[in-house]
Amino acid sequence: MWKWKRNKKQFPKDQQVQKNDSIDALIETLNRSKDFTTDHLTSPTKCVISYIKTMIEPKFLHQSILPALKSHHLKDLEDIKHGIPVDNIKITDELEEIRKRMMQGYIMIQMEESDKEALLIPAITVETRKVSIPEVEFSVVGPKEAFVESLDTNINLLRKRLTLPQLTVHELVIGKLTKTRVAVISIEGIVNEENLNTVIQRLNAIEYDQIIDSSFIAQMIADNSNSPFPQYLDTERPDRVAEVLVEGKVAIVVDGSPHALTCPTTIVEFFSASDDYFLPWHLASAFRLIRLFAVIFSVLSTSLYVAVLTHHHEMVPEDMMATIISSRADIPLPPILEVVVLELTIELLREAGARLPAKVGQTIGIVGGIVIGTAAVEAGLTSNVLLIITALAALASFTTPVYQIGNTIRLIRFPFLLGAQFWGLIGISISMAFFIGHLIRLKSIGRPFFAPLYPLRFRDLKDAFIRLPFNKQSKRPLQTRPDDSTRFNVHRSNEKRDIDD
Q: Which whole-number Å values give the CA distances from 198 to 40, 80, 184, 266, 415, in the listed order?
């Protein structure tokens, strides 16, 4: 039988990718790419210029570097370094440094092609989009800026909000091949050093060839990678990151990702929106409670329907039972199959709407839902009562302000359905106990994920299920263990002085 054999030249291993042991070998490798260029200048300065065209700024090369080389007779690399009006020029013979800088967008100059020493001139061009409004965490009131794919721009957005010398940025490089820049940001004097060191240690321990987005890191450094619950808060809003930094938390920003990670986090944070802090505390608390009720309804509504109709008929009032019986008179499927078919249909519509272009996706979602729902009821595949319950459950799942926890809610509905089918309300109780036990054991960089409910911390309940006024939140959350737990002087904040006092 014919067998396929791996061609080592066609599929190089990591060690083979790094086998260049001289500048000549490096240039030979780069010459295989169409966008690599090597120019030889002969007059008045004799030198060799090498660069990757797609990584440098052409105007900078032609307006600053080439005129300086063509207008003066420069004898060595030191003369070129002093003759070109550019900062951060470096002369080195370290091959790894040369390889790294050239791939970042530096121009390499040698006096002779065989020289081991080279001059590196920064001419980096970075193509990135402009700062725009948040698309995932949109808010009616408040700031309208969102992170972009540039690490430097994202740090600038944070420093603009926190003009503190104590705002500290630790930069790491992760990924054997991608060499991705990762910034760990905190406020010195507030952040708990143990939390900061834990994050940096876990990032340094990552062994992977590519880091494309912050979601890669969230999965690799999670306390429990098998949990469906996100253990890092993923946000695209710089104002939200600035807010949690002041609370003593740590932020992780990845170059190439428009989202930042914050930790340690709690389950309660995933149900608080940015709008909660821009509205009066009465409204914010009411909306937060509505979200929590919607999540509970989304998880349990269809499971209760299956449990009651399968095992607990006596719990349904007589008037309502008549309505349910009439709606299910011609339905050939048992309640569990009826629910699963509708749940899977909604998930298919949701995935189709998310993967299609925006205008087409909205049309597919609305039209598809109406057409399929009406046809299913008329064909006798499902009851109109269940169709209403399932639609409300799907609608309730969209109230979560954080996208990651919304996906978790979509997933955990199915274990509750299985428990309801086999054991009724007892099965739902077992499933609930299992997930609560899992949340109690879960941690975020070693801190309890189920706080402030477990362990119970009354002080942190001021900004959990409800949000009390700002003058009642004089202490930072206990969960982060901040070095400085006091936000402000509570007695001074309660003094409301007029101008004539």
A: 50, 45, 11, 17, 34
* pTM of the predicted structure, to 2 decimals: 0.87
Written as six digits, the tokens of 37 are 């260029």
Contact 191, 250 (CB under 8 A): yes
Angle at 378 between CA 373 and CA 379, to 5 degrees: 95
User: Quick one: tokens of 479?
Assistant: 């969960």
36 pLDDT more than 50: yes
Residue of higher predicted confidence among 8 and 35? 35
pLDDT, position 220? 95
Residue 233 has pLDDT above 70, yes or no: yes
Radius of gyration of the chain from its Cα atoms, rounded to whole angstroms: 30
DSSP string, 122-191: E-B----PPP---SSS--SSS------S-HHHHHHHHHHH---TTEEEEEEEE-TTT-EEEEEEEETTTS
- How many other CB atoms sit within 10 Å of the CB of residue 452? 22
Q: What angle do CA 485, 275, 439 make, to 5 degrees?
A: 60
Q: In this predicted structure, what is the pLDDT of residue 495?
A: 66
Q: With 50 as the cut, is the pLDDT of residue 19 above it?
A: no
Encoding tokens for residue 290? Answer: 């509505």
Least confident of 137-146, 157-166, 195-204, 348-357: 348-357
Q: How many Cα atoms sit within 13 Å of 396 on the Cβ side?
A: 23
Q: Rounded to the nearest 5°, which phi and psi values hold at 234? A: -100, 120
Query: What are the residue boundaries of the structural domains of the chain, listed by start?
Result: 14-122, 151-265, 279-448
Length of the chain: 501
DSSP summary character for residue 231 = S
The more confident residue out of 293 and 136 is 293
